[in-house]
Amino acid sequence: MEYLDFELPIKELEDQLDKCEIIGLESDVDVTNTCKQIEKKLEETKKNIYKNLTAWQRVQLSRHPNRPYTLDYINAICGDTFLELFGDRGFKDDKAMIGGLGKIDGQSFMIIGQQKGYNTKTRQYRNFGMANPEGYRKALRLMKMAEKFGVPVVTFIDTPGAYPGLEAEERGQGEAIARNILEMCRLKVPIICVIVGEGASGGALGIGVGDRVLMMENTWYSVISPESCSSILWKSWEYKEQAAEALKLTSADMKKQKLVDDIIPEPLGGAHYDRETTFKTVQQYITKFYKDLKDLSTTELVAQRMDKYSKMGEYKE
User: Fold this and answer.
1) How many CB atoms lie within 10 A of CB 149?
2) Cys bridge to 193: 210, 242, 251, 275, which one at CB 3.0-4.6 A?
3) How far apart are CA 77 and CA 79, in angstroms?
4) Distance of CA 264 to CAs 55, 67, 207, 270, 300, Å?
5) Using an 8 Å Cβ cutoff, are 156 and 74 in contact?
6) Are 158 and 116 in contact (CB under 8 A)?
7) How many C-beta neighbours within 10 Å does residue 106 have?
């Protein structure tokens, strides 16, 4: 397990507990009470840390190297029913954007999401979860296929942003994202979006328009990352913590502003501490919200979705 800077008190106590247990095994000394005291203190420390996280600490948790990625959710929830589909039928297959058909609780879904890598090699292969225009065009092709056959869509969002390279701009990155937003607004099947990690900028919005948008507890969703915001406003990355607070990017902030529909709770310590519980919870939320949407007519579905997004940003003087 890797630890973030604010998790170091937890690491120290876990190390103490391990040493205490080793002493008990290697000697005749009864360390039961000592271990119990350390366990109690460890539990209290975890609760104090994770119940009072700052916005920046939640950003750090969303990027935790042990955190499950899109394919982890798909493999755990869909099992061997997932069939990946490839290519945008125009340029090439984007490895940062994955998609295909899979079953959740017996219901077929078109599942689309950004995929990050686990090590240096796979991070380069997946382009760090930053999709090119062909990735968004692949996603749109799959969504249109889902619409044709009446299959609901689930998207998993986890990206530091769309790829900002020159070649991406040459192939129409902005147009590809804008086209996805337009088409998702009027897609004639239910769409459920789940932010499982980072939800950054247009890269997230390109697959983020849905009838129900859900955020995992320790994720963030914003027009810009705290580091980039800090570098623009203060000409330095040193103010990223202040930027994170000012951006109101946490799940609680997004729910309060009515920009997302619900928050999916995570195990104490984050999704990576108890993957099985996390996967089960996400599956339950997807099933629950699909049941709310499946009986709506196409006209009602699209009208409600359009109305939902039309109301965002309204204010009264």
Assistant:
1) 10
2) 210
3) 6
4) 17, 15, 19, 11, 26
5) yes
6) yes
7) 7
pLDDT in tens, 147-189: 999 999 999 999 999 999 999 999 999 999 999 999 999 999 9
From residue 161, give the alpha-carbon distance in Å to each of 88, 127, 235.
Answer: 19, 11, 20
- Residue in this structure with the two tokens 């937003």, named with its chain if needed: 181
Write the burial class of residue 308 (CB in 10 Å: 0-12 exposed, 13-18 middle, 19+ buried): middle
Residues 230 and 247 sit within 8 Å (Cβ to Cβ): no
User: Tokens 């840390």 appear where?
Assistant: 49
Measuring CA to CA, which residue among 43, 99, 110 is closest to residue 70? 99
- Assess contact for 31 and 20: CB atoms under 8 A: yes
Closest by Cα among 295, 254, 113, 296 to 307: 296
Q: Where are the alpha helices (DSSP H) in 206-274?
A: 226-233, 240-247, 251-256
Structure tokens at 245: 């607070």
Report yes or no: 99 and 142 within 8 Å, Cβ to Cβ. yes
CA pair distance 118, 136, nearest whole angstrom: 22
For the chain, give the mean pLDDT. 94
Q: Is the model's pTM score more than 0.85?
A: yes
What Rg value do the Cα atoms of the chain yield, rounded? 21
Q: How far is it, in rounded angstroms, from Cα 111 to Cα 152?
A: 9
**What is the crossing angle of helices 133-149 and 173-185, to 10°?**
20
Residue 159, classed as helix, strand or coil, is strand
pLDDT tens per residue across span 264-317: 999 999 999 999 999 999 999 999 999 999 999 999 999 999 999 998 987 777
Q: Compute φ and ψ for 82, nearest 5 degrees.
A: -80, 130
CA distance linking residue 8 with residue 2, whole number of Å = 10
